[in-house]
Amino acid sequence: MPVRLCPLPGPLYTVLMGYKEAPLSEARHRFAGIVDALCNAFLRHHAACLAAVLHGPVDFALPVPSTSRRGRTPLDLVPGLPAHVEEAVGPPGTWSPGLLRHAGGPIGHMRPNASAFAVPSRARPALAGARVLLLDDTYVSGSRAQSAAAALRLAGAGATLIVPLGRVLRPDRSPLHAAFLRRSEVPADAGTGPDRRLGPGATRCCRCVQTEAAMG
Asked: Which of 40, 57, 174, 192 measures 20 to 30 Å from 91, CA to CA?
């Protein structure tokens, strides 16, 4: 369930790369604030959508572990984001990056590998049957996020929902991507719906689109 579609080239991709890779600390801090605001707004406005997909409230929220960086993941280091995620999803949801770690298994393009990540044995009892929100910054082929979700499910999680901040598209190269992007944009006359409140550049929540189709 992507927060926004992320066409390349575009400003959103600059933000999602810049918050962790910009050479200047001032730029990283500014981009991190945008990342926090995008994530917080989406989770708050679409809390009902998250619960519908997970068949209940979020028990645990965590970022997809990095496969190239040691220590805490970039999303875990965004000032305020862990607390804002907990507030947005509400109880019993807790920010729990320690539930999953990179185990070193290979991940290829469009080739997920559940053994690339592992759940510590001490965390498995709490994870049994839990509903997990898995956050990522960018989603290209999805292999890394899918690998993380598979590891959580194999360790006993009841449901896992991947929420990337940006679903990468190449409308300049793919007519299918271009058409999909046009269909997904929030129209200017969208009124006061939850997607409209997300501001300029928002794309429609996929759960909202499915619900409208079922009702229409």
From this structure: 192
What domains lie within the chain, and their CATH numbers? Answer: 4-215 (3.40.50)
At 52-73, the pLDDT tens digits run 999 999 999 999 998 888 889 9
What are 167-178's pLDDT values in tens digits?
A: 999 999 999 989
pTM above 0.85, yes or no: yes
Distance CA 114, CA 80 (A): 30
User: How far apart, in whole angstroms, are the C-alpha atoms of residue 173 and residue 24?
Assistant: 31
SS3 for the chain, per residue?
Answer: CCCEEEECCCHHHHHHHHHHHCCCHHHHHHHHHHHHHHHHHHHHHCHHHHHHHHCCCCCEEEECCCCCCCCCCCHHHCCCHHHHHHHHHCCCCEECHHHCEECCCCCECCECCHHHEECCHHHHHHHCCCEEEEEEEEECCCHHHHHHHHHHHHCCCCEEEEEEEEEEECCCCCHHHHHHHHHHECCCCCCCCCCHHHCCCCECCHHHHHHHHHHC
